[in-house]
């Protein structure tokens, strides 16, 4: 398996070998007779073959593209599973398929895919090597045959894997899915991993048994058995999820959350929208997004934050004017910022002698950091050690209006809220913060937008649809822009009244910080978001 191959010469086939305890767990998920036909399409070092032999299974077929691996096992075919002509069908296909993004594929593997009938029918160069392993495996299963794979979860909700997902929905159902968020199953692999059991069948099971494990710890057989039996386990969550449908992202969340998000998106639909077609000529809904109504920018980059913090130094009048107010991510709470920090900010181009004369206290302060500052990334230009390295979005941040700050990254493993905070004009974000501004023609108040972004339903939407890596949600411009946005119908007096009440209640909370105001704010949103 491969997640992000950086040096293809070291790992040209995307090889990350499955720990024995995990392989054994996967085999135990299968319902098999002793004479079952079993295929391992990329056997690697042979851990699945070893365990299957131990358990008495003899009717085994295996493929491996790397002739240096699994030499001690007879019957391994050293050829590409993708191109191999395979006449028989199987009761179980199990393993850890390679996962390589198209851009990281070596030329011989790309050429193989370009000439492959399955790849040309279902996939393209935006797709991943993993996809064809899954689809071809399903084609090779007997009726009621089982596919048990371990792989990244990415393909379950990306746009470019929709043809694979639709194929799977048309040809069977999921029985079990085990989701490991930050669990280190493979060395140097940090993405979320799933183990799934898929059954090829003309019939359909109603629910999928889902177990989600959040702990950043090595998997043990005890933990895996608890997950299988749905036993109480710290950092584990168990769900029964309805079977997936065509033309949708596969979200491993409760049916209640999925319904809630569907209602939210419907409430954010653009009126009189034209019917839009996606890549597969299926109709999709087009809703308003935050990016339609807000300007969004990532914060300024100093290159060494601690060197630019004023920290109580005595300053002359020129130095006092050469500072800006900054809010760091650690200072953000839902709705408000706890504190502001003064940062040194010298934008004018100066020679060092002039800098020393004009800003003597700053000069003295910077000397302890000079070596580190000189070694910052220079962005292809000469940057003096007292200057910030990248003033991205500076014009946006200089606008004379209130703005909303949110941390660029937020861990959600132990909380159910994000920290969208209203900040006064003249306050700047650094690189760990993203800023959101009303567009000039947006009629809703900044307080309404603030309260909306902090609403629990938006939290659920981002948890399910945002850019989530492990337990970290990313808040760069793109994911914030994509959030569904509930526009007020200004011709509807009831909606106008709700908007004004939300705005007023938000101002009251920012003034008195009383929790009861938040309860009232969320109640006021219910007619707009949940009905």
Specify the CATH class of the largest domain. Answer: Alpha Beta
- CATH names the topology of the largest domain as Adenine-n6-DNA-methyltransferase TaqI, Chain A, domain 2
Number of domains: 2
| CATH architecture level-2 label of the largest domain | Alpha-Beta Complex
| Discrete helix count | 20
Assembly state here?
single chain
What is the C-alpha radius of gyration, as a whole number of Å? Answer: 28 Å
The rough form would be described as globular
Low-pLDDT windows of residues: 1-14, 274-284
Number of strands: 22
Helix content: 25-40%
List the strand order in the largest sheet: 3-2-1-4-5-7-6-8-9
Biggest β-sheet strands, sense, barrel: 9 strands, mixed
Distance between the termini: 44 Å
Average pLDDT confidence is: 90
Q: Structural class given helices, strands, pairing?
A: alpha/beta
Strand proportion = 15-25%
Report a brief summary of the structure.
Helix content is 32%, strand content 20%. It is α/β, with parallel strands linked by helices.
């Amino acid at each position: 398996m491969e997640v992000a191959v950086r040096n293809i010469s070291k790992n040209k086939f995307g090889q990350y070998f499955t720990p024995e305890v995990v392989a054994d767990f996967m085999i135990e998920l299968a319902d098999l007779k002793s004479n079952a036909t079993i295929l391992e399409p990329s056997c690697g070092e042979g851990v699945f073959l070893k365990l299957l032999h131990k358990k008495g299974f003899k009717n085994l077929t295996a493929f491996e593209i790397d002739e240096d691996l699994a030499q001690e096992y007879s019957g391994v075919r050293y050829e590409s599973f993708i191109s191999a002509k395979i006449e028989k069908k199987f009761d179980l296909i199990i393993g850890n398929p390679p996962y390589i993004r198209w851009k990281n594929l070596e030329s011989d593997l790309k050429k193989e895919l370009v000439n492959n009938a399955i790849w040309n029918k279902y996939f393209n160069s935006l797709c991943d090597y993993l996809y064809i392993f899954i689809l071809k495996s399903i084609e090779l299963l007997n009726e009621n045959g089982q596919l048990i794979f371990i792989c990244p979860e990415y393909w379950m909700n990306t746009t470019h894997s929709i043809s694979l997902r639709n194929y799977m929905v048309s040809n069977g159902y999921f029985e079990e899915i085990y989701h490991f968020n930050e669990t280190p199953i493979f060395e140097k692999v940090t993405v979320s991993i799933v183990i799934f059991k898929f059954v090829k069948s003309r019939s359909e099971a109603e629910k999928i048994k889902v177990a989600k494990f959040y702990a950043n710890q090595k998997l043990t057989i005890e933990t895996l058995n608890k997950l299988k039996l749905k036993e109480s386990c710290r950092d584990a969550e168990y769900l029964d999820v309805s079977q997936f449908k065509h033309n949708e992202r596969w979200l491993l969340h409760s049916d209640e959350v999925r319904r809630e998000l569907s209602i939210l998106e419907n409430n954010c639909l653009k009126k009189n929208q034209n019917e839009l077609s996606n890549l597969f000529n299926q109709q999709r809904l087009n809703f308003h997004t935050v990016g339609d109504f807000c300007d969004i920018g990532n914060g300024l980059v100093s290159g060494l934050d601690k060197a630019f913090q004023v920290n109580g130094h005595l300053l002359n009048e020129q130095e006092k004017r050469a500072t800006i107010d900054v809010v760091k991510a650690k200072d953000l709470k839902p709705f408000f910022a706890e504190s502001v920090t003064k940062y040194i900010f010298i934008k004018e181009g100066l020679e060092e002698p002039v800098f020393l004369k004009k800003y003597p206290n700053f000069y003295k302060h910077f000397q302890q950091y000079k070596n580190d500052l000189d070694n910052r990334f220079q962005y292809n230009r000469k940057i003096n050690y007292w200057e910030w390295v990248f003033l991205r979005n500076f014009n946006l941040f200089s606008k004379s209006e209130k703005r909303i700050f949110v941390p660029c990254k937020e861990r959600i493993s132990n909380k159910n809220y994000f920290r969208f905070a209203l900040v006064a004009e003249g306050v700047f974000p650094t690189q760990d913060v993203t800023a959101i501004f009303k567009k000039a023609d947006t009629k809703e108040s900044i307080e309404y937008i603030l309260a909306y972004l902090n609403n629990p339903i938006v939290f659920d939407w981002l948890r399910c649809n945002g850019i989530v890596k492990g337990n970290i949600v990313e808040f760069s411009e793109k994911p914030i822009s994509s959030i569904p946005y509930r526009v007020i119908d200004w011709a509807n007096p009831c909606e106008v009244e709700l908007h004004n009440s939300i705005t007023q209640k938000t101002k009251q909370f920012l003034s008195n910080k009383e929790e009861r105001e938040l309860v009232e704010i969320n109640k006021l949103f219910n007619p707009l978001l949940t009905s």
